[in-house]
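Z., the sequence and structure:
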Amino acid sequence: MAFLEIHFFSDVLNVASTVNVILPETRQGIGVTASEGGDLPKVLYLLHGYSDDHTIWMRRTSVERYAASHNLAVIMPAVNHSFYINEVYGERYWDYVSDELPRIMQRFLRLSDRPGDTYVAGLSMGGYGAMRLALTYPERFAAAASFSGAVDAMSELNNATETRRARWQSVLGDLSKAPGSEVDLFHLMKVNASAPKKPALYVSCGTADFLWHQHQAFVPALEKYGWPVTHYEEPDVGHEWAFWDRQIKKFIEMIFAGDCSVVVVALRALCLIAAPPAFIAHWARRAPPPPTVFPVVPAGLPGGNTARKRFC
């Protein structure tokens, strides 16, 4: 794939900015299958976590190799510690990611602008950003993914450490006003529950992750408000790059699993049928399942405790 590091001036941020982009090629070197080309590339906006920047996905995963055989452009911006929010005492990163960046990328590059060809995904803080984009503008995306996402961050502001609380105040100002506002994912999924077109959502987390309890709260809330969500839980996995590498590979495979036909493979149902009662009881109360009783996926089916859909 072609790898671009694009430096440009952002009017929204009022500063020189950088974004990393990988673009499909119809010819590749040895060991990599090239894209067949054809129509304008689909677009995946891939968002980083709290401690990282626009370079991290290329440095810590094989996302370029996973995307190489597909007609897919991957766009990786940087937003510092903003949580993809317009900071009260800082920069307008939400306006940058949700509006200015897509317009700039369309102007610079030959990319599909169809909602059916547009995707967003992220890890941790980036998982929050991806879900906020999808829940705020459901008509813009075919699918969105959160890996180990900080998806219920607004409910825990009062329990944050002094240092983190000060950081949140620079982003949000009055912390008491955040829950139930446009930065609260649970509020967004409720107020936009009647959206005529909703993206397919993929939400994953490890049971040893410090954000596991947020995942446990987020998934049933999405289901309650009628959002099409596929969820995946992996036992004994923490907040780690090996998991996110597997997850971005899986999400890209899901994007290209079918051409606008929705085929549901009920893996989660099959896993629960094969699971002993202890696992089912644990999942019913959203507690981490004991690793020793995690169900074995039937032979010939992709791994994981999930219901898998084809995205289009």
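Residues 2-256 form a domain with the Rossmann fold fold (CATH 3.40.50.1820). The longest strand covers residues 2-10.

Let me know what you think.
H.
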